[in-house]
Amino acid sequence: MTFPQFAYKNITRNLRAYLAFYLSSSFAVMIFFMFAMFIFHPALETGYMNNIAKKGMVFAEWVIFVFSILFVLYSVSAFLKTRKSEFGILTIQGASPKQLRLLITLENVFIGLASIVTGIIGGTVLAKLFFTAGSYIVEMEPLELYFPLKALGITIGVFLPLFVLISQFTLFIIHSEEVVSLLKGSVKPKREPKSSIPFSILGMMFLGGGFGLALFAGIDIGSAVIITVCTVIGTYLFYSQLSVWVLKLLKRNKKFYRKGTNLLWISDLMYRVKDNARLFFIVSIVSAVAFTATGTLATYKSMFTTEDSLYEMEFLSYSSNKDENEQLTYIQQQFEQKNIDYEQSKFKVIETGQGSSNYPVLVLSYKDGIKILPELKTSKLEEGKGVYFGQTEREGYTVLQDNTTDLQLNNQQMSIKLQSIEQPLLSLHDVLVVDENTFNLLKQGNELVTFYAFQFANSKENLDISQKIHDHIVGETYNPDARYSSKAIEYYQTVQLPSLSLFIGLFIGIIFFLAAGSFLYFRLFTDLYEERKKYKSLAKIGLSEKEMVKNANIQMAILFFLPFLLAIVETGFALQVLQREGGFSNVFQSGVITILGFLGLQLLYFIVIRSSYIKNLKEYVYR
C-alpha cells in the first residue's frame, strides 16, 4: 500500500469525523469564490459605485480568509485527540517523522482539494443567484455570468497552500509529545473539575460591571474598551469557573441530583464545560459579534430614507466664489460628454440662519417661488407671511412655533408668520418663500446667493458624474464658497452604501456563526469514542436506550445553546449602547429579527448533528 492510498483510507475510515471539517471548509471556499467572482467581474472595472462595491468585497475576502486560517487550524488540531494513539502506533512501527509529515500532508491536501472542488462547483452554481441578490440589494445593474479565470486562480492559490501549511503546524504539535503520551491518546484519567469561588464571584463582577456600564455609562473610546474587556474576561470566567461552580451546587442538591438521569448529565457536563471552556468562550464571543454586527447593519440601513428633492443636482454659489463660471462650465461639460439632456434654472436667493440653531434656510421671492412650484399661484402670499418647505424640527429647534419662524440675519432677527408648511423642496437647505416686499427688505444688508438647479432623467444611474462634479466644486473636505448636492450621491450614501454593508456583513456573520457551530460539532465527535465506551458500560448495568438518548439530548442542548444564550445577552447590551449613544431608534427590532434568523440556523444545525450523534451512539451501544 502506498502512502497516498494509506492517507485516502484514513480519511474514508474517519469520514464522519472529517465531514464537518470538509463541509465547513467547502462553504468557506464557496463564499470566497463567489466574492472573488464579484470582485473580478468585468462590469465592475468602471463606475464609482462599482469601485466601492469592489473594495467592500475585497475587504470581505480578507476577513473570510483570515477567519478561514483560524477555522482550519482549529478543526485540524481537533482531530489530534482521537488520532494520537494512531500516530503513536505508527511511530512504534517505525514510521519516521518524514513519513508522518507526508501522511498528514497528503490527508490535508486530499480534504483541501475536495473542499476546493466542491466549493468552486457550489459557487459556480449559486453565482447567478449571488449576483442577482447583490445587484438587487445594492441596486446596481444586474451582473451577468462569465468565465472566472482570475477567481479560480486566486481561490486555488489561496486555499491549497493554506491546507498544506496547517498540516505542518499539526506535525509540530505531534512531534512535541512523547510516544507514550501519543499511545495513551485521550485515554487519560481526568481529575474532578475544580472551581474557585473567588474567581466565580470575580466572573460575575466582570459580567455585571460590563453590562452595567453598557446600560448607564456614557460611551467613549475608554469606556468602550473597559466594557469590552470586562465582558470578555467575564465570559471566560463564566465558563471556566462560574458554570462549574453552579453545576457543583446542583450536585450538592441530593434530591435533584439523584433523580432520573440527572446524575449522569450533571457529572458529564461538569467535565465537558471545564474541558471546553475556551471553546465555549470563542463560540459566545464570535456569535455575539455576528449578531451585533448583522443587527447593527440592518438597523443602519433601515434608519436612512432619501428626501425627494425637486432637482437632480443643486449648486449654490456665494458672492465670494471666484470660480463660479468655471464650475458651472464644468458641470455643463460633464452633461455634454455623457449626452445627457438637462434643464438648468437660476435663482437669486438669500441664505439666513434660523432661530437659535442658526440652521441655514434659503429665502426665495414669491416671483421665483412660482417658477419652481407653479401651484403657489393658487395661494397668494400676504405681506410678512411665507410658505415653509422643510422639516419641522432641526437639532432640537422647532421651526413651527405659533405659526412663526425666526430668521437670523446679520445682527438682527426677523419673525415670519407661516401661511403653511410643506414637504422639503431642496436637498441643500430648507426653503422659505416670502412676498416681494419682505424679500426686498431682507436683501438690505444681506448678500444674494446664486442658486443653480439641474433636472435630467435617470439621476441615480449617473453617480459617476455626480461624484466628479462634487469633487471638483467642493473638493475632498469643504469649500466655504460653494455648496453642491446630488440625488445620486444622496441615494448612494443613504441606500446603496448601507445596503452594500449589510450584504457583505450578512455573509461574514453567517460564516462566523456556522464556524462557531462547527467548533461544537468537532468537539462532540472528538469525544464520541469515549462517550460510546461510557454508554456501553452503563448499558451493561441497566441504562436503557431511552435514558441514554435523554441524557445525550440534555448535554447536547446545553452545549449548543448555552453559548448561544450568553451571546444573545451580550448582543442585547451591545444594542442597548447603540440605541442610547448612536441614535438607532429601531435597533432592538432589527436585533430580534437577526437573532431569530440565527436561532433558526442553530436549531437546524442542532437537529442535524443530534440525529447523526444519537444514531452513532445507538449503533455502537445497542447493536
TrEMBL record:
The chain crosses the membrane at residues 20-39, 59-80, 109-131, 151-174, 195-219, 225-250, 279-300, 500-524, 556-575, 587-608. Pfam families: FtsX. GO terms for biological process: transmembrane transport. It is a multi-pass membrane protein. It is found in: Cell membrane. Its main location: membrane. One of its GO terms (cellular component) is plasma membrane. Residues 62-169 form the ABC3 transporter permease C-terminal domain. Keywords: Cell membrane, Membrane, Transmembrane, Transmembrane helix, Transport. InterPro entries: ABC-4_Integral_Memb_Prot, ABC3_permease_C, ABC_permease_BceB-typ. Belongs to the ABC-4 integral membrane protein family. This is Putative ABC transport system permease protein.
